[in-house]
Specification:
297 residues; alpha/beta; Arc Repressor Mutant, subunit A; D-Maltodextrin-Binding Protein, domain 2; 3 domains; 9-stranded mixed sheet; two-stranded antiparallel sheet; 9 helices; 11 strands; 43% helix
């Protein structure tokens, strides 16, 4: 009798992922070795093991520093998520009662779509930590991080000048053209659209796409807030560019038969202050874990 067996994929152990993150953050093996309490030679062995497991190079090495390949950057993103999931679970059992205050900034659509559920779950496991939330655009949040007015911020990547700030991608999803379920404005010429504020990369993506496809359009509505975009859609006054996760109920992704220009992904990034407290680190891990679940959904 023939018995078919499935090939078991190798496991990337947490220690290997910790080393990967340490190297990425420190920029060389020696500094990373200090973080994970290993010798530089042991770090080299771990790196070799990682590359053997994934069957491709993840680091570009020179005499002074180490940088990540594109595959390495992808692996780093997942490593941070896996470590955060582990920390989040262990913290439920072994973290003593933690107290403190965290000043968290978030862009509008992240606050509306994700923070209510995420912060409620965090308060259940860390009732002694007070989270103070500021909702602003990415550029303003970046400036507040630079002037130490916030401990951490959730921003839209590529939407502001993040020079000098450590931006970590924690979530990616598609942008879509959204309209009212059963609505008729998408059939009109010129096409009525709602746009975001001046300088917003989503606004530019929408306008550039329509221009390149020679689509006749008219801006009927403008809003810097997702609530405003949704109001325009629900009134069937316009269609708008939204994150896929913002489509629910009567707001739906528009069918491909309307031949609207294709859109790319967008990313949510997390910025953290240089010197963080245990409370800030705890919510950072919680956010990484929560967005990892959203990404897998």
């Amino acid at each position: 009798m023939n018995i078919s067996t499935k090939t078991q994929l190798p496991l990337l152990e947490l220690d290997l992922l910790k080393t990967l993150v340490a190297i990425a953050e420190r920029g060389n093996f020696s500094s990373a070795a200090e973080v994970v309490f290993r010798t530089p030679s042991a770090i080299s062995v771990q790196v070799k093991k990682i590359e053997e497991l994934v069957e491709r190079p993840i680091f570009i090495r020179d005499s002074r520093s180490v940088s990540l390949t594109q595959d390495g950057l992808l692996l780093l993103e997942h490593a941070r998520r896996v470590l955060a999931l582990n920390n989040e679970m262990v913290a439920r059992f072994v973290t003593p009662n933690m107290e403190g205050e965290v000043r968290l900034g978030a862009v509008d659509h992240v606050a509306e779509q994700f923070l209510t559920t995420v912060l409620r779950r965090f308060s259940e496991t860390h009732p002694g930590v007070v989270v103070e939330v500021t909702v602003e655009n990415s550029a303003e949040l970046a400036e507040r991080m630079k002037t130490n007015q916030l401990d951490m911020a959730l921003v839209t990547c590529n939407s502001a000048n993040y020079a000098g700030l450590d931006l970590e991608v924690i979530f990616r999803e598609k942008l879509v053209w959204a309209g009212l379920k059963g609505g008729i404005c998408v059939e009109q010429t010129p096409l009525p659209i709602s746009v975001w504020e001046e300088g917003c990369v989503w606004r530019q993506a929408a306008l550039d796409g329509l221009e390149k496809s020679n689509r006749d359009y008219h801006v009927n509505f403008k809003s810097a807030y997702v609530s405003g975009q949704k109001a325009a859609i629900l009134a069937d006054l316009a269609i708008a560019l939204l994150p896929a996760s913002s489509c629910d109920g009567n707001i739906v992704s528009i069918d491909s038969k309307y031949n609207l220009p294709a859109l790319s992904e967008y990313s949510i990034g997390m910025i953290m202050a240089q010197d963080t407290s245990c409370s800030v680190d705890a919510i950072a891990d919680h956010l990484r874990a929560s967005f990892a679940f959203e990404q897998a959904a």
